[in-house]
Design goal:
Blueprint (H helix, E strand, L loop, with lengths): L2 H16 L4 H15 L4 E8 L4 E9 L13 E3 L4 H10 L9 E4 L2 E2 L9 H9 L2 E11 L2 E11 L7 H31 L10 H18 L3 E8 L2 H8 L1 H19 L6 E6 L2 E7 L3 H16 L7 E7 L10 H17 L6 E2 L9 E2 L16 E2 L4
Parallel strand pairs: 11-12
Antiparallel strand pairs: 1-2, 1-7, 2-3, 4-5, 4-6, 6-7, 8-10, 8-11, 9-10, 13-14
Helix pairs in contact: 1-2, 1-5, 2-5, 7-8, 8-9
Length: about 375
């Protein structure tokens, strides 16, 4: 393969990883790009999980055989079956060598292109109808991160020394792409996480709620929102200091997370200050109301604070059409204000009022198109 072709392959690999969104796309782009660059028929990317002593396969691309899934859940191999990962990197590389790639063939050792003979890889090549493979260690931040594996069909030309050297270059490009992806993932995580409680933040709720309401409009999926206000935080801050107030917020965040786990897939979030919420997409309104009731009960048992005021709004209840995230949020928020005004020990649920309860109606727009507030939700203590 000419130098220009290989340079183009390196550029294509780097561009593919840079364009990926999320970890899985990054892994797929890395394996697929390396497979094309080396003229392989199959490629895999694996990570070394030190604490478990195993190589776990992240992605398989190309011509997969029986049992090889694109994103396998449980494909992993004890590292003692592949001693070159630990011995080569930690013994040879630690002494100043380079983490070079090597070649295995279905016939046994490939002279001059590998650090040692690994029977398990040879057996795997034969079992899967492949003739050879090149294995390149991936080194990230000065430590062995995992490996890049590219194979060719039986009967295709065997990888040579130049291919192994090129695979080493590709592994370095993959390492740089993975490092960048991990930095972006961390930045995204921080952007959507409340620093004090570790819950999701308002930005995460806004994004998820917008998506959920679109699903509701398209497919009729149930979307439920619990908005709650932690009572007594100002008193705690004023009398015992903000450090104690932060402790109250953290403890309530843990309670919210625990109660949110009662509802499959619910997102627990801190909106800011003493305001929190639960967002559920799919589960029934009754499940969400039950979780909100448990939240009220547990919050009332906290040593600090004065319980919580909870409002619930669900598209499964008679609250009128929900055409925007803003509308559902305003309904839940209004229910929460009512719970706070009444010092309710249980959630107030929009749309579940009796004849004796006043009716409050909210709407995003009047018939004339102007934004306005109308009476449109019924609040009661269930």
């Amino acid at each position: 393969m000419g130098e220009d072709i290989r340079l183009a392959a390196v550029v294509a690999l780097a561009q593919g990883m840079a364009a990926a969104h999320g970890s899985r796309e990054t892994w797929r782009a890395a394996a697929a790009g390396a497979c094309r660059a080396l003229g392989g028929s199959f490629a895999a990317l694996s990570v070394w999980e030190r604490e478990l002593g195993r190589l776990r396969v992240l992605v398989n691309v190309g011509e997969r055989t029986a049992g090889e899934e694109e994103f396998p859940d449980g494909e992993a191999y004890p590292v003692h079956q592949f001693p070159e990962i630990t011995e080569f990197l930690h013994e040879r590389w630690a002494r100043g060598g380079e983490p070079n790639a090597w070649v295995e063939t279905a016939e046994g050792p490939a002279a001059g292109v590998r650090p040692g003979y690994v029977h398990q890889r040879v057996a795997a090549l034969r079992r899967r109808g492949r003739g050879c493979c090149v294995v390149a260690p991936i080194v990230l931040n000065g430590r062995a991160w995992g490996e890049l594996y590219v194979a060719r069909r039986a009967g295709d030309p065997v990888f040579g020394r130049e291919d192994a050297d090129f695979a080493t270059v590709l592994a370095a490009v993959v390492a740089a792409g993975i490092a960048q992806a991990e930095r972006l993932e961390e930045a995204r995580r921080l952007a959507f996480t409340d620093a004090l409680t570790g819950l999701a933040n308002r930005r995460a709720v806004d994004v998820r709620l917008d998506e959920a309401v679109e699903r509701h409009k398209r497919d009729g999926v149930v979307v439920s929102l619990v908005v709650c206000d932690l009572n007594g935080l100002k008193r705690v801050n004023d009398t015992r200091g903000h450090a104690v107030g932060d402790r109250l917020l953290e403890r309530f965040g843990s309670v919210l997370s625990l109660c949110g786990a009662m509802v499959p897939g619910a997102l627990a979030a801190r909106l800011g200050g003493d305001e929190f919420c639960l967002l559920a997409v799919g589960p029934s309104a009754d499940e969400v109301v039950m979780a909100a009731g448990e939240l009220c009960r547990r919050a009332g048992e906290l040593e600090l604070g004065e319980g919580v005021a909870c409002g619930v709004a669900s598209t499964a209840d008679p609250i009128g059409p929900v055409r925007s995230a803003r509308r559902l949020f305003r309904l839940a928020d209004a229910a929460q204000y009512r719970a706070k005004a009444e010092r309710a020990a249980r959630p107030v649920v929009a749309g579940r009022g009796g004849a004796e309860d006043p009716v409050v109606r909210l709407a995003d727009e009047t018939p004339s198109g102007r934004t306005a507030e109308r009476r449109q939700f019924r609040g009661r203590r269930p």
